[in-house]
C-alpha cells in the first residue's frame, strides 16, 4: 500500500494530462486528465488505447488531492499506490527502475455534457503540446537533507575545450586540489556533486568521472587533452580513487545526512583528474566546452565515510555481442576472493548506485550473491534492477533500503542488449556505438578496493568453433590467440550470419560456462583469479504486495463524491 504523490504545474487554463507509459509513447499509457472550470475541478483516471482521447477507466486509482489556478497556471496535486487494484491490467506498476512519463496540455477547456442519468460526458480538444521524459520515480531521497549554509564548493573541469569534430573523444584534465579547495590540509566531506554543463552542450557530454590520486607532475596540470595523449601519470590516475560518476541525463547527487565522502587532510591525495566523454556522432566542428563536476562539501565529519566502487565488465574489445540478438546477456562480477580480501567483517552497505551501458543496452541488474549452507549460490537481494534502461537517462539512484555486502559475497552484474537491426558484431569500447557493462555502487564505510571487474578468457572458443562455425571459416578463428584488436575481432566474427543457435551457443560458452579473469585492486594490492560466473540456483522473488481492494467513497476537492478501489 505504498503511495507516491505527484504535483504538476502548467501554464494553461485548459486541461492537463500526465501519466506513465510503457515506452514513452501514448498507446498503453496509464494517465490522468484534469482541469478547473470556475470553482469546480475535474479529474479522471484514464487509459490510452491509441493516439486519441483516452477513455475513462472503470477503476479510478489516481486520487486528486488539490487543484488550483493562479496567474494563468493550473496546478494539480494527486497520488497513486505503487500497485493498484485494476484487474484489467490497465495500470502500470511503479517500480524502482526507469519510468517513461508522458504529458500533454491544451489551452481550451473540455466540453462537459450532462446526461439524463446525472452522469457527465467530457469531450476534449486536441492537445497543444505534448512530450515524454525518463525518470526514476523512486530513485531520489524521500526527504533530501538541506545543505547547510556554511557549505563550500569546488569544481573540477577544463576551460574552453575545442571539442574535436569526431565521433568519440575522451578528454582528460589534471588539477591540484589545493589550488581549488581552501585549507586542503584539513579533511573535507563531500555531501553533494552536480553536473555543470556548458549551456547548449547537453547532447555532447556523455559522461564525466573524477578520480583523485598522487604522483602528477607540474606538466600534467596545464591544458587538458585527449586522454590517450596524456602522460602515464594522468592515465594511471584514471584507475585510482573515484569520487564521482555522472552520465547523460543525470542530475545532482545528494548524500544522506549521515554520510559524506572525505577528501584532503594530511593523508589526502593531492590531485584530481576529470575524464569527459564527448559524444559527437555528426562530427560537428566548432563546439567549445567548459563542462565539469561541482562538489559541495562541509568541514565537519559525518557518521560514515562513503566510497564509490568501479565494477563490472572490463572495457575491452573482447566484450562481444552478436548482431540480431533480442536479449543477449553479458555477465560480470566482483569475486568472493575480492570481497573477502577488502571488505570488513561487518561488510559494506550500498545505499545508491548508477548503472551504465551504451546504445544497445536495454536493462541491467546488480545483485548480491551468497553461498548458502548447501553450497549453492543464491541471490540475497538485487541492489538495483532496471529492465527499462534509457541510454539518455543515467542517474545515480538512491536505493529504497540499504543492501549489505559481506566478505565472501559476490556482486553479480548482468547487462541485457538488443542488437536487432545491426549488421555486424558489437564490441566493447569507448564509443557509444560500442558497448559497456558497468555499475558504480555508492557505499559506506569506505574500503581500499578501487575497482572490481572481470572479463572472459575464451577457454571454450574452440568448442564453439567446432560446433557452430562453418568449416570454411574455422581456421580464421585461430587469430584470437595472438590478436584481439577490435578490427580483427570484427572481421573474423562478421563472417558468420549469426543465427539463433550461434547466438545462444556463443553466450553460453563465453558467459555461462566459460572461465573469466576476475580481478580487483587498491593502491597497493592486486587480486586475480580464474573462475566461472556463479551458477545461481535461486533468485530473490518477493511476493507482490496484496492489496485490500474494497470499494470506498471519497469526497473530491469540489465536494462531489466518487467511488474508488482501495
User: What's the overall geometry?
Assistant: globular
Mean pLDDT: 92
Figure out the total of helices: 7
Range of strand content: 35-45%
Helicity range of the residues? Answer: under 10%
As a whole number of angstroms, the C-alpha radius of gyration is: 26 Å
- Major sheet: size, sense and barrel closure? 6 strands, mixed
Q: How many strand units?
A: 42
How far apart are the first and last residues' alpha carbons, in Å? 9 Å
Sheet/helix structural class: mainly beta
Uncertain ranges: 556-563
Q: What do these coordinates show?
A:
The protein has 566 residues and is mainly beta. The chain is 9% helix and 43% strand. The chain contains 7 helices and 42 strands. The strands form 11 sheets. Strands 11, 14, 18, 19, 22 and 23 form a 6-stranded mixed β-sheet that branches. It has a 6-stranded mixed β-sheet with strand order 29-35-25-37-38-39. Helix 4 (461-468) runs antiparallel to helix 7 (500-512). The longest helix has 13 residues, at 500-512.
Sequence-ordered SSE layout with sheet pairings:
Blueprint: E1 3-10, E2 16-21, E3 30-37, E4 40-47, E5 62-70, E6 73-81, E7 99-105, E8 111-114, E9 120-123, E10 129-135, E11 152-157, E12 161-162, E13 168-176, H1 177-180, E14 187-196, E15 205-213, E16 225-226, H2 232-237, E17 241-247, E18 253-254, E19 259-264, E20 271-279, E21 288-289, E22 292-298, E23 304-305, E24 307-308, E25 310-313, E26 320-321, E27 328-334, H3 336-342, E28 348-353, E29 355-356, E30 361-371, E31 377-386, E32 397-405, E33 410-417, E34 426-427, E35 438-439, E36 442-444, E37 451-456, H4 461-468, H5 471-474, H6 486-493, H7 500-512, E38 515-521, E39 526-532, E40 536-538, E41 551-555, E42 561-565
Helix pairs in contact: 4-7
Amino acid at each position: 500500500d505504498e503511495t507516491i504523490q505527484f504535483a504538476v504545474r502548467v501554464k494553461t487554463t485548459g486541461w492537463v494530462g500526465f501519466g506513465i507509459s510503457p515506452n514513452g509513447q501514448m498507446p498503453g499509457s496509464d494517465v490522468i486528465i484534469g482541469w478547473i472550470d470556475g470553482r469546480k475541478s475535474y479529474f479522471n483516471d484514464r487509459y490510452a488505447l491509441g493516439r486519441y482521447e483516452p477513455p475513462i477507466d472503470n477503476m479510478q486509482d489516481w486520487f486528486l488531492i488539490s487543484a488550483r489556478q493562479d496567474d494563468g497556471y493550473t496546478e494539480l496535486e494527486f497520488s497513486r499506490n505503487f500497485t493498484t487494484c485494476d484487474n484489467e491490467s490497465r495500470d502500470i506498476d511503479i517500480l524502482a527502475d526507469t519510468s517513461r512519463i508522458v504529458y500533454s496540455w491544451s489551452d481550451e477547456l473540455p466540453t462537459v455534457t450532462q446526461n439524463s442519468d446525472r452522469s457527465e460526458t467530457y469531450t476534449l480538444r486536441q492537445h497543444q503540446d505534448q512530450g515524454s521524459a525518463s525518470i526514476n520515480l523512486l530513485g531520489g531521497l524521500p526527504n533530501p537533507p538541506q545543505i547547510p549554509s556554511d557549505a563550500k564548493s569546488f569544481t573540477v573541469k577544463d576551460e574552453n575545450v575545442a571539442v574535436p569534430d569526431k565521433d568519440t573523444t575522451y578528454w582528460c584534465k589534471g588539477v591540484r586540489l589545493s589550488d581549488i579547495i581552501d585549507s586542503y590540509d584539513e579533511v573535507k566531506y563531500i555531501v553533494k556533486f552536480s553536473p555543470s554543463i556548458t549551456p547548449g552542450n547537453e547532447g555532447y557530454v556523455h559522461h564525466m568521472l573524477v578520480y583523485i590520486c598522487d604522483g602528477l607532475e607540474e606538466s600534467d596540470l596545464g591544458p587538458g587533452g585527449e586522454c590517450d595523449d596524456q602522460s602515464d601519470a594522468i592515465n594511471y590516475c584514471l584507475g585510482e580513487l573515484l569520487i564521482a560518476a555522472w552520465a547523460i541525463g543525470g542530475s545532482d547527487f545528494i548524500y544522506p545526512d549521515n554520510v559524506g565522502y572525505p577528501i584532503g587532510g594530511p593523508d589526502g591525495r593531492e590531485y584530481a583528474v576529470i575524464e569527459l566523454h564527448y559524444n559527437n556522432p555528426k562530427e560537428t566542428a566548432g563546439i567549445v566546452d567548459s563542462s565539469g563536476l561541482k562538489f559541495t562539501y562541509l568541514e565537519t565529519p559525518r557518521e560514515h565515510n562513503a566510497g564509490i566502487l568501479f565494477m563490472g565488465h572490463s572495457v575491452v574489445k573482447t566484450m562481444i555481442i552478436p548482431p540480431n540478438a533480442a536479449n543477449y546477456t553479458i555477465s560480470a562480477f566482483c569475486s568472493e576472493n575480492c570481497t573477502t580480501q577488502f571488505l570488513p567483517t561487518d561488510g559494506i552497505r550500498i545505499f545508491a548506485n548508477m548503472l551504465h551501458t551504451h546504445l544497445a543496452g536495454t536493462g541491467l541488474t546488480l545483485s548480491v550473491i551468497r553461498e548458502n549452507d548447501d553450497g549453492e549460490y543464491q541471490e540475497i537481494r538485487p541492489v538495483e534492477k532496471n529492465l527499462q534502461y534509457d541510454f539518455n537517462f543515467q542517474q545515480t539512484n538512491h536505493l529504497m533500503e540499504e543492501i549489505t555486502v559481506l566478505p565472501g559475497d559476490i556482486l553479480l552484474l548482468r547487462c541485457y542488449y538488443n542488437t536487432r537491426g545491426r549488421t555486424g558484431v558489437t564490441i566493447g569500447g569507448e564509443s557509444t556505438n560500442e558497448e559497456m557493462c558497468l555499475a558504480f555502487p555508492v557505499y559506506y564505510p569506505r574500503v581500499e578496493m578501487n575497482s572490481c571487474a572481470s572479463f572472459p578468457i575464451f577457454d571454450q572458443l574452440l568448442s564453439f568453433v567446432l560446433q557452430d562455425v562453418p568449416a570454411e571459416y574455422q581456421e580464421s578463428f585461430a587469430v584470437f590467440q595472438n590478436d584481439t584488436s577490435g578490427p580483427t575481432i570484427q572481421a573474423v566474427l562478421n563472417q558468420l550470419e549469426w543465427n539463433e543457435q550461434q547466438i545462444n551457443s556463443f553466450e553460453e560458452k563465453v558467459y555461462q560456462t566459460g572461465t573469466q579473469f576476475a580481478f580487483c585492486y587498491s593502491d597497493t594490492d592486486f587480486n586475480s583469479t580464474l573462475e566461472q560466473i556463479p551458477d545461481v540456483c535461486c533468485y530473490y522473488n518477493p511476493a507482490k504486495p496484496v492489496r485490500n481492494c474494497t470499494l470506498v467513497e471519497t469526497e473530491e476537492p469540489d465536494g462531489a463524491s466518487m467511488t474508488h478501489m482501495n
